[in-house]
Every structure is written in structure tokens, then in C-alpha cells.
């Protein structure tokens, strides 16, 4: 990537900070998806065990 | 969403300083969040309900994220006055690292997310209480009360007092009187705690135009009200030992700590805290001689509230039975 001009006209530090923020955001979204999945499974399991699904 | 104003950027700071991810974490007020999580978790545990540990953890996470959303919305609205006060001028928006619009977006996003997830993981009562708490803190306290009345932290304190009730509701789906007793403890603790700090940071609040009690009514009136609220607070803090919520450890901690709290409040009342005007120049907690009593009460108030909830949590964890000196309200 050396020598390629930054399309947003950012400094190196700004581009690095933006990349880091984007990475944290991506990880946050993945964590959120996993969380929703886990909550769904736990709720589903609880309802099946108690017969609330019938 | 890019409306960073000149007033929100500290002089001499570049507005285009790149935001780091931890600037966004700072918007969520992690220290406040940790206290909220602690009290909410205590409320959840005190409910003595059968709840999946996973769902309990998610419920506490929702409360933490909701508290963070409130913090971000508070920093969005208060960016102008935050830049004027020593305690708050290092926050990401006054420093020019995060734009106001970004804080607003983050606050709204996290608020919606936390409330919806709470409704899904726990129940709609807990989700509704969480939504009410966020709205109350962001709109009623931050936008309306804070700059309008010296009773700002008295009424606004309800938002900070609700987390244990939300925790209890998440565990059981209802909120008995003992849950509201936890609310009352934090609600009545807030005025002496906040006003003790305000007594030796009067200059900051006056400069920002925030009508905190010492600014609006004077130090003498504030010291008197600190004592009166303390007299109301301590019996309520001891009350859980009589209502089937707290056990012998709680009775000892709340009783002895309450006594010390009253002694410190009495010393503040007799002191000249706040009379000298501005706080000392060296550090936020460096105070002039006359204000040391206020600083002592402020510091002890944090310790006392922490110990009260820690005692409840410890008793619940160790399986100690609560005392039933009057009758069970939970």
C-alpha cells in the first residue's frame, strides 16, 4: 500500500485510527450476532423444558 | 452528524485529532457503568429467583449498555458546559476527538439495542424500566433539570437509583417493595453525595451556569440540606435488615457505616465548606482547609453505598439468611 494516496485525504495516523475503529465495530457486530443466537437458544431450551411451546 | 462546534473544542486542540476506539468507550462513562452494573447485579441476586445464568448475564449487560447509552447522550448534550469544568473538560467531545453527532448516534443506537435485547432476554417490565431510566436520565435530567433547578440531582437521582429495580424485574418479572427499598437507598444517598462534591467544586459549576445547590442557594443552605437528607437516608439504608432483605452482616455494616455517615454529615453542617468559593488549584480532590469535611463525606459516601450493596451480595452468595425483624416485603 506504500505510495498509494489515501482516497479520503487522511493522515497516516487518522487512517490507522479509522481502521482500528472499523475492526472494533466489526467485532462488536459479530459479538452481537452471537449474543442473539445464544439468547434465542437458551430461551428456546427453557420453553421446551417447561412445555411453554405447546 | 458532523456538527462539532467551536464551543465544544478546547482552545488549542485540533478538532481533527483522530478518534480512537477508547474515546468511544469513554463516552459510555465506564466508571459510572461499573457502579450501575454492581447495583443492578445485587438487585438481580437479591430477587432470589431461578434464572438462567446466561440470561442473567445478558440482562446485566443490557443494563450496562443502557447506562453507557445514557452517558453518551449526556455527553452529547452537555458538550458545551463540559468544556468549561475541570472535572469534565478532558472528555472526548470537549477535547475535539469525537464529534457531537457521533455521540448522539452512539447513544441512540445503544439505547435501542439494550432495551430490545432486555425485552428478548428477560421480560418487557425490565425492558420498559430500562427504557424509562435512559429517557429519564437523558431527557428529564440532562436536557431539562440540570440547567434549570438546584433540585436537578434530587429528581434526576431517580435514574441512578433504578438499576437494582431493573435487575430485580429482570429476574422475577415484578418489583416488590424490597426492590423499591434498594431504589430508595440510592435515591436518598444521591443528594448528600453530590452536594458534598459540589461544595468544593462550586466555582466550576458557577462558571458553567449549572445551578447546583451551593451555586443557587449558597453553601450554608447546602450544608443544612446535606444533614437533613443524611438523617433521612441512614434509617432507609438500615431498613433492609428489618424487611427480610438484609442479614446480620448487612445490619452491622449499615448500622456502623450509617453512624459514621451521620457524624461526617454533622461535621459538614458545622463546617465552612464552600464558603471560600473556588476549589484549590492542585487537582480535583485538592480542597481548601474549610472544605475538607465535605471531601471526607463525599469519599465516605461512595464507600458506604458500595459496602451496603456488597453486604447484600455477600450474604446472598454465602447463603446467609436475611433477618425478618418486621416482616418480609419481598
**Biggest protein-protein contact in the assembly:** A-B, 18 and 15 residues
Tell me about the biggest sheet of chain A?
A: none
- The Cα radius of gyration of chain A reads 21 Å
By secondary-structure content and strand pairing, the structural class of chain B works out as: mainly alpha
- Quaternary structure classification: heterodimer
Helix content of chain B: 55-70%
Mean pLDDT over all positions of chain B: 89
Question: What does it look like?
Answer:
The complex is a heterodimer of chains A (54) and B (330). Chain A has 54 residues and is mainly α. Chain A is 72% helix and 0% strand. The mean pLDDT of chain A is 81. Chain B is mainly alpha-helical and 330 residues long. Chain B has helices at 21-27, 30-46, 53-77, 79-82, 100-121, 124-145, 152-161, 163-172, 177-199, 202-208, 213-216, 219-238, 248-270, 292-318. In chain B, helix 6 (124-145) packs antiparallel against helix 7 and helix 8 runs antiparallel to helix 9 (177-199). Chains A and B meet through helix 1 of A and helix 3 and helix 5 of B.
In a few lines, what is going on in this structure?
The complex is a heterodimer of chains A (about 55) and B (about 325). Chain A is mostly helical and about 55 residues long. Chain A has one helix at about 10-50.
Amino acid at each position: 500500500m506504500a505510495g498509494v494516496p489515501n482516497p479520503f485525504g487522511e493522515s497516516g495516523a487518522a487512517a490507522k485510527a479509522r481502521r482500528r475503529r472499523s475492526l472494533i465495530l466489526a467485532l462488536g457486530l459479530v459479538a452481537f450476532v452471537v449474543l442473539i443466537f445464544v439468547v434465542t437458544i437458551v430461551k428456546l431450551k427453557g420453553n421446551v423444558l417447561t412445555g411453554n411451546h405447546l | 452528524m458532523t456538527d462539532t462546534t467551536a464551543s465544544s473544542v478546547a482552545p488549542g486542540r485540533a478538532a481533527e485529532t483522530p478518534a480512537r476506539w477508547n474515546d468511544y468507550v469513554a463516552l459510555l462513562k465506564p466508571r459510572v457503568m461499573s457502579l450501575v452494573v454492581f447495583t443492578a447485579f445485587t438487585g438481580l441476586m437479591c430477587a432470589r429467583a431461578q434464572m438462567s445464568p446466561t440470561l442473567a448475564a445478558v440482562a446485566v449487560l443490557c443494563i450496562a449498555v443502557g447506562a453507557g447509552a445514557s452517558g453518551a447522550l449526556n455527553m452529547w448534550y452537555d458538550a458545551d458546559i463540559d468544556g468549561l469544568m475541570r472535572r469534565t473538560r478532558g472528555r472526548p467531545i470537549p477535547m475535539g476527538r469525537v464529534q457531537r453527532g457521533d455521540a448522539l448516534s452512539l447513544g441512540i443506537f445503544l439505547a435501542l439495542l439494550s432495551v430490545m435485547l432486555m425485552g428478548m432476554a428477560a421480560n418487557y417490565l425490565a425492558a420498559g424500566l430500562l427504557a424509562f431510566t435512559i429517557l429519564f436520565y437523558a431527557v428529564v435530567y440532562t436536557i431539562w433539570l440540570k440547567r434549570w433547578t438546584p433540585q436537578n440531582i434530587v429528581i434526576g437521582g431517580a435514574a441512578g437509583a433504578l438499576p437494582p429495580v431493573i435487575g430485580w424485574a429482570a429476574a422475577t418479572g415484578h418489583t416488590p417493595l424490597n426492590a423499591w427499598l434498594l431504589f430508595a437507598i440510592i435515591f436518598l444517598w444521591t443528594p448528600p453525595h453530590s452536594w458534598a462534591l459540589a461544595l468544593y467544586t462550586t466555582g466550576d459549576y458557577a462558571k458553567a451556569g449549572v445551578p447546583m445547590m451551593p451555586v443557587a442557594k449558597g453553601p450554608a443552605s447546602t450544608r443544612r440540606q446535606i444533614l437533613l437528607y443524611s438523617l433521612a437516608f441512614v434509617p432507609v439504608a438500615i431498613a433492609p435488615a428489618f424487611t427480610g432483605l438484609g442479614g446480620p452482616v448487612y445490619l452491622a455494616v449499615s448500622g456502623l457505616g450509617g453512624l459514621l455517615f451521620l457524624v461526617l454529615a454533622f461535621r459538614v453542617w458545622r463546617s465552612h465548606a464552600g464558603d471560600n468559593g473556588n476549589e484549590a488549584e492542585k487537582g480535583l480532590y485538592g480542597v481548601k482547609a474549610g472544605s475538607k469535611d465535605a471531601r471526607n463525606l463525599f469519599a465516605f459516601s461512595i464507600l458506604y453505598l458500595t459496602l451496603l450493596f456488597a453486604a447484600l451480595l455477600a450474604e446472598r452468595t454465602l447463603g446467609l439468611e436475611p433477618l425478618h425483624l418486621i416482616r418480609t416485603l419481598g
